Predict the 3D structure of the following.
Amino acid sequence: MGLTVAVTGPTGDIGISAVEALEHSTEVEQIIGMARRPFDPARLGWTKTRYQQGDIRDRAAVDALVADADVVVHLAFIIMGSREESARVNLEGTRNVFEATVAAERPRRLVYTSSVAAYGYHADNPVPLTEDVPPRGSPEHYYSEQKAACEATLAEIVTGSDLETYVLRPCIVAGPRAPALAEAMPWNQLPGPVKKVAQALPLLKPPFPDPGTPLQLVHHDDVAAAIALAATTSAPPGAYNIAGDGVVSMSAVAKQLGARPVRVPRIAASAASQVIARLPFVPSVLEWLHVGRTSVVMDTAKAKSQLGWKPEHSAAETLSALAQSV
Ligand SMILES: NC(=O)c1ccc[n+]([C@@H]2O[C@H](COP(=O)([O-])OP(=O)(O)OC[C@H]3O[C@@H](n4cnc5c(N)ncnc54)[C@H](OP(=O)(O)O)[C@@H]3O)[C@@H](O)[C@H]2O)c1
């Protein structure tokens, strides 16, 4: 009998590729996916997957999802949203998934996609970050704070249980089927005709500040491979950093995604971040500016040596693949 794998958030940027990797795994017999919107797995040619609509905030729905699973893969999350809405889904919903998985009889393994953001954007972070560095989060960025809180919740809930827990910490995920990075660029929010004119005339291209902070990127298929490995491996449970080889500059991101890079001193990004952190009210979307203030480059040696993970796309190749698709 092969494994039954339950997946929350199978329809997201990572979810689609992750389910596809699980569909191709000979060790996986059945996949049960759950997210809120209607979705038909047959539309993507998936044959092992059945889908049920449900919200991770609904404990009964989560209990029903994990009851028949050997492995639970938790991906459902709100990345771009308000602080308040994201907290409801990410903190309450994630707690439900962790508690339901521990409480159910059948699951023996949980795979949770945390993030590089769980480490937080601290000036004293070592470069590169290894998995031994505690995930402290940065309270001024809701996503970072919530990712660190979820890891703490996971540690609290699984203590004393036999559940094998694999925590993956990917950097920014990109590629043709994960366009969020390109979509988040301010100029991509412009109306189509305005964007076209701006793209055609180099001087009209929107400026994009580059404070010199290096960025890691990972291709959606490589993250998917890491998730499928974590679901099936005999490698030890624990945390694994996940990033493509090499780094790209913010200037390269800007150039390839249609903007005009402008080098600014690192101190400018740090100062902007400090000002935003001190304001009494900040729109949640602005909190993402903290990401650029310091390097959060991760060491991926552990995923390679212990999990046997081998990314097929470098950061630069992932960026090119994204740029060609938008
Ligand atoms: N994308 C990245 O760059 C990146 C990097 C590092 C880590 N991660 C982490 O990887 C995980 C997956 O990310 P992603 O990029 O695939 O996210 P995504 O594209 O935003 O997809 C989120 C998925 O979760 C589902 N979902 C959201 N709220 C839900 C709820 N209340 N109940 C049930 N399902 C819900 C969504 O479907 P519905 O809206 O239909 O419910 C969708 O399937 C997240 O934990 C994220 O933090 C992502």
